[in-house]
Amino acid sequence: MVDPQSSSPVFPAPPDGEPEFLAAAGAEAPDDLVGTLVAEEPQPVDTLAVEQSLWAVVLAGGIGSRFWPLSAPGRPKQLLALVGDRPLIADTIARLAPLVPAERVLVVTSRDIADALHAAIPEVPAANMLIEPRPLGTAAALAWGAQEVARRAGPRTVFVALHADLAVAYPEEFRRVIRRAAGIAASADDLVVLAARPTRPDTGFGYLQPGMPLERELPLAQGGAVRVERFIEKPGAILAETMIERGALWNTGVFVWQAGTVLDALQANTPELEHGLPALAAGRLDRFAGLIQSVSIDRGLLERSDRVVALPADFGWDDVGTWACLRRVRDLDDTGNGVSGDAFLVEASANIVHAEAGTVVVYGCTSMLVVTLPGLTFVTPLERAKELKPLLDQLPEKVKRQVAGG
Predict the structure, then answer these.
(1) CA 188 to CA 211: how far, in whole Å?
(2) Quick one: which of 182, 186, 185, 206 has its CA closest to 196?
(3) pTM of the model
(4) What CATH homologous superfamily does 4-319 map to?
(5) Residue 99 pLDDT exceeds 60
């Protein structure tokens, strides 16, 4: 669970009588219409109809080297129980239900970890595991997911896109906000981003500078959706502070949009993909992969589009990106330690301990990371654990091979 003291203020629910959902029809479309938009405007339907048509695309590629030594080729980050008792990928699929059942969830991942991931989420059909021919980058991965949603359910179908490694403290609120976002996305060609209130000038997140409220929406201060004037991915510390002072919001990495809308937006704004998108629409995945350049959805689309909409949300979000973030997402003891495994901490505070081998005793330490695995113990200040690449570049191969699953 997220430390309540670090959570942002709760945003009020929409006023009584405001429709919570508007949905696009989920009918099958002919193959030659995949990636195009139907001319007529989407019509409002009831909540049940929307929930019967909403899809999800989960991005679950990569190993997660920032969680070395716990993450390794044989045990990628998505399979680690870093926040609760279940692997991150299993938590992600579970919190989508019942809003998005497993049969309407697509998981984009890499070939080397696909079997292990599917074993952790057997409820997702094997046909829904989209295995990249090579690492594509998140813009291309989401294009593939959008094309597959369009092929199976029609280009007007709304889907939620998210990463497999986010922490959510309040799943019911998470699903409620997705419902609101789906209503916005279904009624216009907008790219809806769920946004969180910043609590610090973190340089690892994307920042959304809010503009005018959407028509028929509450003001931003009351939780209403707004146009985004500017999006900046991972600004420097001074720029991040400046943007926060001007009311910027964090990008949570949770997006809601129509399949056809995001495909059209990528075609218009993302030259790294434009030559490959026709091949993708034709079902030629290998050719698509060979024609594109890797780029993130944040830099490749959100920084360039004028159709981005931010919807403030407060579901206890955090990005499970580094060891240091676990102090924000794990249950902590009275002195702020987050512990997993057999450990005793005496006169110690604000530490993270992950013990899978033996008993760990921490005495008189503050803000340290301790990880124990069979054959390996790793200790470092939490501040240094934010970026481990310099360490990994200097370690001998025999040490790297000692990690679990390596």
Answers:
(1) 17
(2) 206
(3) 0.82
(4) Spore Coat Polysaccharide Biosynthesis Protein SpsA; Chain A (3.90.550.10)
(5) yes
